[in-house]
Amino acid sequence: MSLKSKKISAILKQRNLSWYWLYQHTDIGKTTIYDIRNGTNKHVEFETMEKIADALDVSLDEFRSKEEIE
Asked: What's the mean pLDDT when you consider all of the chain?
């Protein structure tokens, strides 16, 4: 699991949401969402991260930090 997917997972967990919810609330394909979740898509496009940040109502800076998630 990549650092981005760990951070997204942590935010989803805090809000009691699922990756499927994220798929439903973004204009991102299901395969792309699940590739991000599984870490098989390590080079996520800026536009994709922007859509995820918007859906989660967080700043893109949340995903730039190199700080590990517990």
From this structure: 88
